[in-house]
Amino acid sequence: xxxxxxxxxxxxxxxxxxxxxxxxxxxxxxxxxxxxxxxxxxxxxxxxxxxxxxxxxxxxxxxxxxxxxxxxxxxxxxxxxxxxxxxxxxxxxxxxxxxxxxxxxxxxxxxxxxxxxxxxxxxxxxxxxxxxxxxxxxxxxxxxxxxxxxxxxxxxxxxxxxxxxxxxxxxxxxxxxxxxxxxxxxxxxxxxxxxxxxxxxxxxxxxxxxxxxxxxxxxxxxxxxxxxxxxxxxx
Length: 235
Fold this sequence. Notes:
By secondary structure, the protein is mainly α. It folds into two domains: 43-141, no CATH class; 148-232, no CATH class. It is built from 13 helices and three strands. It has a three-stranded parallel β-sheet with strand order 1-2-3. Helix 4 runs parallel beside helix 6 (87-105) and helix 5 (74-81) packs across helix 6. The longest helix is centred in the middle third of the chain and has 19 residues, at 87-105.
């Protein structure tokens, strides 16, 4: 299936973030107690193919509409789990699993691919490689860096999916999104990951909004006193 102009025009509407931690989503809904005030961090090396399949399955049970799935830096993930693994093969197994979900639930997943995987699919479409890989992906697009409008739409849809009833401005102080977007050089994945970490830090401190002091503490935790210039000059 090709990406039609209609799909292209609706990418922002289809965008959600699948990296919002379950605990954070529950916290946004007011369902987490004091026992979860402890640090909530992602530890990718604890994941296996089984846990990933379960996570994808649980996530997609709530999705009645087409969505965009990011497949980004999966090589790093699988090399962390098993340095000797054929990470492309592992990614293909996950693609096969999501294909089963699409068939059973009548969903469309549009995959945003990291450069290495994108090149493999692009060559296959041009008849320059093994085209058997194409049966796992109905459509794909190499997504360029976010601009602020697209970034806001991604955040808005992510919060909506997480069950947050407020506005973006209620959760992120004015200028925070622009600062983070600039600091990560418009990288979609790093942008969403940074906002997730900032939100978790705010809630751990009983703050209902990510403000400049929260951002500064996050940067000090992440980079120390010598963080990237883009971050430091904005504080």
